[in-house]
Amino acid sequence: MSEMLTMLTVGMTLFGFHVDSVTEVPDVGGRMWRMTYEKNGAELLWLERDDEVKSFTIAFKTLPTDDTGVAHILEHSVLSGSEKYPAKSPFNELRKSSVNVFINAMTSKDMTFYPFSTRNDADFLNLADVYLDAVFYPLVVKQPQAFYQEGWHYEWDRAKRELSVNGVVFNEMKGLYASPERHVYGEITSALYPDTVYGHDSGGNPASIPKLTYEAFCAFHKRFYHPSNARIFIDGSVPLEPLLAKLDGYLKDFEARDMQTDVALQPPCEVKKRIPYASASCDNKVFYAEGWSAGDSYAPVYRHALEILSVYLCGSNEAPLTKALLEKNLCRDVSMVKVDYRQMPIYLVVKETSEAHVDAIRQTIRDTLTQLCDQGLDKNLLHAILNGNEFAERELNINYPKGLIFFSRLSSNWFFGANPAAPFALTEIYAALREGVDTGLFERLIREQLLDNPHHAEVVLYPDPTLAARQADAERQRLEAIRDAMSERELDALGEAAAQLKAYQQRKDDPANIAKIPRLTSRELAPKGAPVSSELHTEDEVVRIKTKTTADGIFHLSLYFPMDDLTADELVRMPLFADLLGKLKTTNYSALALQTAITANIGEIEFAVISPARGRYFTVTLSALLEKKEATFALLKELLFKTSFEDQADIEAVLLQSRLSAEQYALMDGRDIAVRYAKRHLNERWMASDCLYGEGQLRWLQRASADTDLRQWYAALASRLFQKRGLVISHTDNLKDDAVNELLAAFGQETQVPQTIAPVPNEWQGFQIDGDTGFAGWVAPLPEGVVTTGAMHVAARMLTLEYLQNEVREIGGAYGVSMRVTASGIVECSTYRDPTPSRSLQKMNTLGDALRKILTEKVDIDRYIVASIASMEPYRSPADEALLAISLFVENRDGDDLERVRREMLTTTKEQLLAFATLLDTITPTATTCIVGGQRQLNTLPTTKTQPIKP
User: Fold this and answer.
1) Exposed, middle or buried, 218 (CB in 10 Å: 0-12/13-18/19+)?
2) Fewer Cβ neighbours under 10 Å: the N or C end of the chain?
3) pLDDT grade for 391, boundaries at 50, 70 and 90
């Protein structure tokens, strides 16, 4: 840090920023500096911490007045070129030549924010410059093409005389609106706050998006994207002085403005709504929601108390409100969440019920809450939940840089005038919450904010099997009416506008404009990647991996039990087995007592199943305080060896919830289903993968029941599964060997007899879901004996960002598209919320030609080398670092192999890329494909080999 910054004090002015205050934030190991840009009032917060991952966010309060999605479309569009960087997509160019660990933009109900994180100082300043020019000087307010591409535009098919609507955000929101769960949250929010910004869908309702005019779009930018409305947050060991100088260069040209962006408060109201949603299946598909407005979100103790209360009431099947509803067979699942809006809503969503049960649900909720108030809450459980939440908040075992989490934590306070440092005082917050357990705080919250709250809404979202057809017909009639009202000249003009947009999308950027975008070169990167800090040895047929840790007082442990002796029919049962552990009673605990003990003693624990290169594993990963090691290991043994599978009703409840989750996942992210299904014929590993996570798993969940056979099989599984032979164990070095040996002594030493999971041919080309977008999967294996190289990774990045991004996202309108070459030797492509997935598959069939074309255009290969290196070095939490070594081992890889690929990336040549293009030509005829999509998407398939996702 420069001498000037070492003297940074309150009251000084630096590059136009007045230093207003500094606050010690001991619970995150830093200080919070608050500054104001004197000329126009832009606010800056720096959370000064010793963290090499530096984060930056510029955010604006954005308050839409309708459902056209203007804030969301603007968020997409400002990144499509700016005055200083007039390329079509500087954002996409940054993805080619930055070593960021996170880069994105996001829209919430009342704000839009542009965050990034990187380890590299030069990269940090480069990214900040591009983001600042994008938000303050976007080309889209002068040139409308990005608005039409990202938002919406008409397309005119003269031959068929059909008018249609396309656009990236338009298609994204069509995909979101296909989910009843997402739909019900939107409806309950608008019911609670009908007269405020929260009553509108800032993302955009697909029915309203085509009402947004370009003029209104530009006016929205002018209204809100001004420094007087800006909040700038930086975190970590940032290059502060050059950053402030850069900010000054942008902010100095703007005069102060009275923004008048206060969010109006909604007076208390009582609202009930009954709303249909499109669904081909109707049996027990009603979603019932209640919402309460709980006041200001500023006080962190109050905000945390509502979070704790939500977990207490509905955090598991044993939670009292969930249990009361499940025991009466009134629904499949229940969730309760609190959201940090200006007025803080609490949502209770009852999933997959029937309208005949609504009165009983409503009464059960009231009766249960009243009983809890009268009898008092379980103090031991409340303290356990407090312990678990505090552990999670302090450890931050999340796959996002801490700066992004910290901005989320403070943004509500900061944007609405409260103290932004208050949410970080975790020691004080949790001390007050623990005192509140004994003084009746949580009972008062139930009474005041749930039972007696006059600001309340209720929504019944019911399935309508004819709604999709009616909506499609109404949209067709609307477009036909627009067509019929136009003259042939006007229609020709629409066609010409669409052609001009396509020409804009296909036009190559002027190399001079690309050269203006700041970039890193491969020469500026470290010659070697970060080492995998671990020791590995085998003892008594157990592979033992010890990793270094920087976690203070927290240990991380992973146990990978081989399950290669399971047949395909048995393998599909394993994900549910993983879901059940910790949710059922055991020999020494009731289900509720067990969950209380786990929450009180184990920071995090997860059971899962995986199918890596070395075989199939049942995995246990956990994190806990070293001081609670003995209690943690005792509970782990209880879970693995003493879980009872006698209670059919409890197992059936978890089974139905797993089924609902799997069906919703297929609806919201069907690309995973598509890719796994397309791979399942290749070999045993990918067939097992489909059984564990894919369409095969979903089908088993849809036909399974918690019958005697299943329960007896689960009961006998522990003695078969939890063996030392073949076990892979990884732990941080603060967990001593003696403790690990004591744990290992609990496991048997039986030898497993491997079973073959024979791959089977793919029967279907597509799976039907509700909605009007889809997901495509394209899979082709490399020839036998060909090893994945660094050059292949560079080529995949090049094809994603140059070819597929343009053809599938920008021109095709898909929300997302990607390509990768896996370490196991498979080329995979997939699309996300894609209006025309069959068209996208056609584009994937020309990857070799596309790569050759890119290479003939004097492309700068070095940009893609940098981007590929960045993809290998993501942000990892301490828990992720602990998992890295064991994850590499089960994939038959190690740190040396990672370094080989990195080295090959750095030395990638044009000749190697051309050779891969030829290889793509060779493997493309072997590619298998799958589409998960709506009926319109499946109708475009060359055959009718399709099947619905839902039975």
Assistant:
1) middle
2) C
3) very high
Radius of gyration of the chain (CA): 28
Mean pLDDT of 597-602: 94
Cα separation, 47 vs 6, whole angstroms: 15
Residues contacting residue 503 through CB under 8 Å, at least 6 positions apart = none
pLDDT category at 450 given cuts 50, 70, 90 is very high
Written as six digits, the tokens of 913 are: 């890329």
Convert 703-717 to b/e letters by CB count within 10 Å (16 or more is b): ebebeeebbeebeeb
**Alpha-carbon torsion 77, 674, 681, 691, what sign?**
positive
Asked if residue 837 has pLDDT above 90, the reply is yes
**Cα–Cα distance measured from residue 541 to residue 367, given in angstroms and rounded to the nearest whole number:** 56
Find, among 818, 906, 921, the residue nearest to 861 by Cα.
906
Sign of the CA dihedral 933, 938, 940, 946? positive
DSSP conformational letter for 446:
I
Q: What is the dihedral of CA 319, 323, 325, 326, to 10 degrees?
A: 130
* Cβ neighbours of residue 249 closer than 8 Å, sequence gap 6 or more: none
Sign of CA dihedral 842, 848, 854, 857: negative
**Interior CA angle at 211 toward 206 and 212, to 5°?**
100
Task: Decide if 580 contacts 714 (C-beta within 8 A).
Answer: yes
Q: Name the nearest CA neighbour of 805 among 36, 246, 189, 91.
A: 91
pLDDT of residue 299: 86
Taking alpha carbons only, the member of 742, 747, 748 closest to residue 633 is: 742
768 confidence band (pLDDT: 50, 70, 90): very high
pLDDT at 598: 95
Q: How far apart are CA 678 and CA 764, in angstroms?
A: 9
Average pLDDT over residues 310-339: 96
Single out the residue of 369, 380, 717 nearest to residue 563, CA to CA: 717
Mean pLDDT of 56-65: 97
**Do residues 48 and 31 touch, judged by C-beta distance below 8 A?**
yes
Dihedral class, residue 536 (left if φ above 0, else alpha if ψ from -120 to 50, else beta): beta
Six-digit token string for 920: 């793509």
Which is nearest to 868 in space by CA: 821, 915, 836, 923? 821
Report the length, in residues, of the chain: 951
Q: Where are the alpha helices (DSSP H) in 461-516?
A: 467-485, 488-506, 511-516
- Between 6 and 98, the more confident residue is 98
Does residue 5 surpass a pLDDT of 80?
no
Return left, alpha or beta for 90; rule: phi > 0 is left, psi -120 to 50 is alpha, else beta.
alpha
Q: How far apart are the first and last CA of the chain?
A: 62
How far apart CA 78 and CA 87 sit, in angstroms, is 12
The pLDDT, as a whole number, for residue 549 is 74
Buried b (16+ CB within 10 A) or exposed e, 773-791: bbbbbbbbbbeeeeebbbb
Q: What is the pLDDT of residue 513?
A: 92
- Residue 551: pLDDT band (50, 70, 90) is low
CA torsion, ordered 833, 837, 840, 844, to nearest 10 deg: 110
Sign of CA dihedral 535, 536, 537, 542: positive
Asked whether the beta carbons of 200 and 266 are under 8 A apart, the reply is no
Take residue 421 and report the two structure tokens written for it: 């440092």
